[in-house]
Amino acid sequence: xxxxxxxxxxxxxxxxxxxxxxxxxxxxxxxxxxxxxxxxxxxxxxxxxxxxxxxxxxxxxxxxxxxxxxxxxxxxxxxxxxxxxxxxxxxxxxxxxxxxxxxxxxxxxxxxxxxxxxxxxxxxxxxxxxxxxxxxxxxxxxxxxxxxxxxxxxxxxxxxxxxxxxxxxxxxxxxxxxxxxxxxxxxxxxxxxxxxxxxxxxxxxxxxxxxxxxxxxxxxxxxxxxxxxxxxxxxxxxxxxxxxxxxxxxxxxxxxxxxxxxxxxxxxxxxxxxxxxxxxxxxxxxxxxxxxxxxxxxxxxxxxxxxxxxxxxxxxxxxxxxxxxxxxxxxxxxxxxxxxxxxxxxxxxxxxxxxxxxxxxxxxxxxxxxxxxxxxxxxxxxxxxxxxxxxxxxxxxxxxxxxxxxxxxxxxxxxxxxxxxxxxxx
Length: 426
Known about the structure:
Blueprint: E1 2-3, E2 6-7, H1 8-18, H2 21-58, H3 66-89, H4 91-114, H5 118-135, H6 138-144, H7 151-176, H8 179-183, H9 187-207, H10 213-222, H11 241-269, H12 275-290, H13 293-303, H14 305-322, H15 329-357, H16 360-392, H17 394-413
Helix pairs in contact: 1-10, 2-5, 2-7, 2-9, 3-4, 3-5, 3-16, 4-5, 4-9, 6-10, 6-15, 7-12, 7-13, 7-15, 11-14, 11-15, 11-16, 11-17, 12-15, 13-14, 13-15, 14-15, 14-17, 16-17
């Protein structure tokens, strides 16, 4: 659109520059990261009580795994579509939709617990997966605001904020749960309703973002000094070696991580490890997932995404090998910690590389497609791992986790360092 010979984009860019762009980027980054803290706290509630609530209603422990399956299925269903909408409508309205949908679904989960409606709860978990998948595409908004030379740090900053939310979740549950008896409300229902209430903060921080980060991306990309001078086309960059490698690495690393996490409690319980110690092991794993995200991001900016992808895949595979092999609690906990650390390295590096290689008008769809592949791996890898355990035991499961890392290591290693898309960002 032209207004007196000046395009609408030029007008927006002029306003951004006049209002001190670094200040706008800093403010929006804080808002997105704050929303991520609250989102993580809220979603951890479902991680903690979801399977327990299903078991309470059904009495069938085998149905408890549906929580995981349905939420990941929701992610697969919506990731590309929501990315498409982000590219067409902007990031902010789509993130608002995700926040509202997630909040309403948590209220639904609380209602279905109270009414003892198992089918309704299963449907709600699917919708919940859709809502959280949309919200997790806040990575697109963060990437919009930073140049290639700072892309790793930006993504790392967002992921690091997740650890705060994860650590807050446990005392939050402990503080809310005692009120269920005095209020006469099922404890799981009360926790979901409380989780929905705090999501209002994520919705509020999203509303406060201005302008839409897609407009900032257009300004960043319009200046060649902010990019690696790549030719960013108008179609999905599916022939790019960096994109394909990132897809493979992120999917396989996530598959290993989810497989180990989903079967960790089974492994430890068979060796009579108390639930409290299993919970501590899971917490240590979460610390591994997010505590080192910012250092990994800075290393991506300094030495390039390729090396961090390789190192992350190696660490994930080593952790996957160690976790199920030992009957010693501390060794198994160290293994699952390594899985989290390796996943962190691959998640930060692949997100940064995909974002750097993709034009803003296609970034939502490309990261959405990546999320779909992650979702597929996160469903199939644990299922296949369970089959391996049933047939050959936990020793074979450890080898299975290690072997999954080899294609990821190869996919990153085969990238040629002479190509600009995988050089350290300048």
